[in-house]
Design a protein that fits this description.
Helix content: 55-70%
Radius of gyration: 14 Å
Structural class: mainly alpha
Shape: globular
Number of helices: 4
Largest sheet: none
Amino acid sequence: LEVKVDRGELAKRNKIKGFIKLVKPKYSESYIAKIVDAIFKYSAKYKIDPYIITTTAYVESEFSMKSGPCIGIMQGNAVNRQFALLKWF
């Protein structure tokens, strides 16, 4: 399986990976890679700059998945999701 990544994206991935290592030195390489992959997946899906997702995730949860009752590193919750859906429809 070959995945094409341009140099610009690779540079961004490395910067984000370095930032996460800096602020969360106890996180494993594999966990950081999962975070970076998720950042780029949703960056492409929603056409948002990966740096915006990264900084928001850091401010909201410091990349922690255990900041309950909210869900994930972006700290979403069911109430916010329902409100956003009602707002758009």
